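Session log. Operator J.P. requested a structure for one protein chain; no other inputs attached. Running the standard single-chain path with token output.
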Amino acid sequence: TLIVGEFWRFLISISKHREILSLLKLRPYAEIVEKNPGFALKYLVPNYLARGITETECVSCFLHHYRRMHAALPECVLRQILQGDVTFHEISCRGNCFTLTIGSPRPPLDKEGELSISLKVDGKKIFSISFTIVPGWVVKSEAGEILLITQLQGARGCHPEFKLVRKRLYEYSPRKLLFAALQGVADVFKVSELEAVCATNQRSYKRKYAGILQHCYDDFFSKLGMTTTAAGFYFCPIPIEGKPLASFEKRSRARARKRRAIRRQIQWACAAFLLGATDRAACSSSFEVCSSTGT
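Structure written below.
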């Protein structure tokens, strides 16, 4: 029975590989493969996306993600994303520039997620989040597909920039801005579930970094209100619901209102960019101390 099972999985794997080769003949994937042949095989790397994902699941994730990207996005937008980070939104505030980008991660981080959203402060990248559109069954979800977060990366030595995010954008964590953009991605692909790897399943996990990773992943996801699943992932529905404004003290309510307005703006700008909107300024609004525009 074991031999039969292994043989059956081998046949399924061969079939999936053929499907991927067929998919990658389409534009603009064929152009990327011509420049970087390894792109077509990166899902075979050990611990692709995360620890604990089987080879069959890895193949299915890669295939599903790029099928959905090709089906949902205009070719010009998809080509831009595949070539690297693209700015989809900028916020100018009292002499500082906060830039949000989306694109395919560069090596070696390209094995930790197929899309990455980043935040830059005055041109310096301070935080990024990587994710992939995967079939729900991979994480034992009943949803047809989900957004799976597999990497959170903060740059070292960016404490001054983190303080600027808090001071200018009223945001206590840069990650919240990136999550706002993630919801824009979910809007475009009509995904209603968000899941994330726990620290021990993160691709770069090592015991000596256990405490740091637990703080960056498990503690953050828990504070965000995500719950753990039986399969060992963190889960929350989309849209992500925040605390009611009425629950804030009166003196904090105005800041919370501005913070949420900025998040909504980022969400709309990301969705507009992915859909190829020509007038993304329509997704912007002005604030008392900051002016924001799509790019």
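Operator note: The mean pLDDT is 86.
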